[in-house]
Amino acid sequence: MTTFGRVSPDRDRPQVLTMGEPAGVGGEITLKAWLKRGDGLPPFFVIDDPKRLRDLAARVAFPVPIREIATPDQTASVFPSALPVLPEPLAVPSSPGRPDPSNANVVERAIERAVGLVQAGEAAAVVTNPIHKQTMYKGGFRFAGHTEYLAALAGITTAPVMMLACAELRVVPVTVHVSLVESIRNLTTTSIVEKAVITAAALKRDFGVVAPRLAIAGLNPHAGEGGDMGNEETTVIRPAIDALKARGIDAVGPLSPDTMFSARARGRYDAAICMYHDQALIPIKTIDFDGAVNLTLGLPFVRTSPDHGTALDIAGTGRANEASLVAAIRMADAMARQRALHR
Prior knowledge:
Blueprint: E1 15-18, H1 26-34, E2 44-48, H2 50-60, E3 66-68, H3 75-78, E4 83-87, H4 104-119, E5 126-127, H5 133-138, H6 146-154, E6 161-165, E7 170-173, H7 180-186, H8 189-207, E8 213-217, H9 232-246, E9 250-255, H10 263-266, E10 271-274, H11 277-287, E11 293-297, E12 303-306, H12 323-340
Parallel strand pairs: 1-2, 1-5, 2-4, 3-4, 5-12, 7-10, 8-9, 8-10
Antiparallel strand pairs: 6-7, 6-11, 11-12
């Protein structure tokens, strides 16, 4: 799989992290990520409640000084000795593992502020900590999730695309958070083409892949076995591949889902376009459960996120693994630097 190198942007700017669900593990993994700063982690600041983070650091015994900043440009001087925090006070004190809808608007505002700072050129990329959707809905959140909210903030009408990425694999599900029955019902030639076109463009702009190669998964066992195990490959997926080729995109398939994710097969493409959620997420989480990154393609700014949820059951214990957040920070840095070449 083609990878990207570290390139120089027009100017260095810090990344901005959002607080995520205050009762989840977002704060803990942010503290742990800052402790990795000596490993070449790019500078970042977090929009959060400074008191919450100080209390959390004391609770889990992490030696992380918290320092409030007024503007993102103060990050560079603060980051080596303390975690820079742009204050966003909670509405009510948070308790690990116990989400409170009263804080939903604060979580939402942190995301909005982060996007605003990136759009204003004060931050290089947005890295979002996990939110707890049920709590957000109870607090009046009107969007299905992060992706839809980010699209609204960006003012785009085309649906953004979710990609999961690690060093060995990139996957894009065409249908996402719906049942398997609904996934099959909702799968169309148009939806496959739209997701694949955005993916190919992002591979060029954000990952430096000059000539992207897309592997298009089949839906049925053995990619339908010539129609004996389903005809979606013939009626829906094959026309999408033909349409992509007509656009000059190197797309192959439909490939049998049970063989296309082997190490040998992965070397033949830059991203896999999968037909439904688990078809994409099972292989990447099997390959790199801790280091996979969730990113949104098709936005006018870079957004990444750890590929896990709020983990309410271990919140406040200090046991949360920061690897995915660290990977998200590193990937956002590389993507922002690569994207700077196209300005």
